[in-house]
Structures are given as structure tokens and as C-alpha cells.
Amino acid sequence: MSARILDGKATAAKIKADLAARVAALKEQGIVPGLGTVLVGEDPGSQIYVAGKHRDCAEVGISSLRRDLPENAGQAEVEAVVDELNASEECTGYIVQLPLPRHLDTQALIERMDPAKDADGLHPANLGRLVHMVDAPLPCTPYGIVVLLQEYGVPLKGAEVVVVGRGITVGRSLGLLLTRRSENATVTLCHTGTQDLAAHTRRADIVVAAAGVPHLITADMVKPGAAVLDVGVSRVDGKIAGDVAPGVEEVAGFLTPNPGGVGPMTRAMLLTNVVEAAERRARERG
Ligand SMILES: Nc1nc2c(c(=O)[nH]1)N[C@@H](CN(C=O)c1ccc(C(=O)N[C@@H](CCC(=O)O)C(=O)O)cc1)CN2
């Protein structure tokens, strides 16, 4: 067997084409969606992702507000940028790129954001809404994973999903999203304290690997025909190494490439959240 590729790049391109039309309609009503990014320091991955997010904005007609700060920026300096974006008329949504340098208080910065402008869906008020299963901007990677699975007709209702990794941007939030009534999957959230990871992954219809451990998921850990999504990004000798080992494509029914799978979907869903926030603003204005 050779797995069907879950092509995130192609799916993201379709989403962006649809968003470009929605942005044009908003502009006719006098609303220009604007994405802000707050990037602190020189992390090479973060530099690449933020640059990609602004390229995407240009592609669909969203205006860009890029705020880059040096590695040694203090908490007060970053808070001032957050306050500025909270107040900015041009900024309809923004993100604080993670991870932040260790000397900064990430939690305090996220909590300082205006939840109505939280394009990442990571503010506690928005995650709380997700817990309560009410409408909120959804965290971009989990949102992208669900849309990608739906695009390829991978059934979620009743599926056994094993998520490896409990980080807030992917694992923990994905568990909340997949267990909503609209998705109705059964989720096992595995992490570094899990005993016998393979016993869990082997019975899963869908495995989402988001541990950041290169080649953690090997072919013998996958049920034949399962969908495997590789979220992990480690940079080994300048190349991306995912959490999924070579050979899994021989066993899995569906597999995301990495790069070209979940990453482009994360970016497409960020744009979706920005456009949805701008559309909400247009409705409120009447
Ligand atoms: N504030 C946030 N920070 C982070 C998030 C997030 O959702 N919000 N997620 C990750 C990184 N991430 C988004 O920022 C992200 C990861 C990967 C990609 C992407 O397009 N990857 C490309 C490859 C690019 C390359 O490295 O050459 C691909 O997979 O094809 C975009 C965004 C952590 N931080």
C-alpha cells in the first residue's frame, strides 16, 4: 500500500482563493482586514513562518502590520506593542509568534491581547469558548488539520484519534476541537508521561504527531489504512525532520507530507480567522 497524500499546499491554495474574494467584498464595504504579527528575536523557524504569513496576506489582499522586536526586548516593550495593536483601527486580528524568548512571560502577553483580535484562538477567553463548545476563533493548526481531513473525506465521526503532544497550539486544542459534537471523534491525548505509546497509536484511525521528536512514529506503530498527520518540525542539518519516520507511507492510508502538509494549512486558517473577524466587524457596523 502507498498512502494517499493529504496535500496541505493545494488545499491552502483553494482556501486562499476563496478568501481573496471575501476580502474584495469587505473592501467594497470600506473594511480592509489587517493582520498584525509580533515577533521577538531571531528564532529561524519563527522568522520563516512570519515571513510566510505576510506573503499570504499580500496574496489575498489583507494588509500587514509587522512588529519585529530584538531578542533582548523586555516585557514592558512587548506589552506596549500588544497595547498598540489592541488599539489600532487597521489591525483586525493579530498574533504573538511563539515561542517567545525565555525571559518573557508568554502567558501574560497572551492574556493582554484583546480576545476579539486574537487571530490564533489562543487567548484563554477563546479557548474557554472552545471548551464550552460555542463559536470562537479556532487555533490555526488544529483548525487546519480538521479542514484537511474533511477535504480528503477522512471520517471523523466515531473515529479513534490519537494525538501525540499536549502543547496548547496543537495537541490540547485539537483534543477540544475533535470532541465537539460537530466532529464527534474519540480522542486520546498522549504525551511524555504516556506509557507504551505504540499500543495507543496502533489502534488509532487517525494519528496526529505533534511531539517535536524526529521520526517518533514508525511504520510498526501505525494501523494499516490509518491517516497520519505530521505536525512535528525539527531542523536537522538545516533540513526539516518531521515526527513521522520514512516507511509509514507503506502502511498508512493517508499521510501529510512535511513540508507541504499541516504548515500551509496553519497559515491558511490564520487568514481565515482574520477575515472572519473583519466580517464580524462589518456585520456589527450594519
Ligand atoms: N502564534 C503562533 N505561534 C506558533 C504557531 C501558531 O499557530 N501560532 N504554530 C507553530 C508555527 N507555525 C505558525 O506560526 C507554522 C509552522 C509551519 C508553517 C509552514 O508553512 N511550514 C512550511 C515549511 C516552512 C519551512 O520551514 O520552510 C510547510 O510545512 O510546508 C507555518 C506556520 C509554532 N508557533
TrEMBL record:
Gene3D superfamilies found in the cross-reference section: Leucine Dehydrogenase, chain A, domain 1, NAD(P)-binding Rossmann-like Domain
EC nos: 1.5.1.5, 3.5.4.9
Domain Tetrahydrofolate dehydrogenase/cyclohydrolase catalytic positions: 6-120
Pathway participation: One-carbon metabolism; tetrahydrofolate interconversion
Catalytic activity: (6R)-5,10-methylene-5,6,7,8-tetrahydrofolate + NADP(+) = (6R)-5,10-methenyltetrahydrofolate + NADPH; (6R)-5,10-methenyltetrahydrofolate + H2O = (6R)-10-formyltetrahydrofolate + H(+)
Binding-site list for NADP(+): G165, R166, G167, V233
Alphabetized SUPFAM superfamilies for the sequence: Aminoacid dehydrogenase-like, N-terminal domain, NAD(P)-binding Rossmann-fold domains
Record keyword Hydrolase present: yes
Residue ranges occupied by any Tetrahydrofolate dehydrogenase/cyclohydrolase NAD(P)-binding domain in the UniProt entry: 139-281
PANTHER family per the UniProt record, alphabetical: C-1-TETRAHYDROFOLATE SYNTHASE, CYTOPLASMIC, C-1-TETRAHYDROFOLATE SYNTHASE, CYTOPLASMIC-RELATED
The protein's role, per its UniProt record: Catalyzes the oxidation of 5,10-methylenetetrahydrofolate to 5,10-methenyltetrahydrofolate and then the hydrolysis of 5,10-methenyltetrahydrofolate to 10-formyltetrahydrofolate.
NCBIfam families per UniProt: PRK14193.1
Family recorded in the similarity comment: Belongs to the tetrahydrofolate dehydrogenase/cyclohydrolase family.
Protein name as annotated: Bifunctional protein FolD
Organism in which the protein naturally occurs: Streptosporangium amethystogenes subsp. fukuiense
The encoding gene: folD
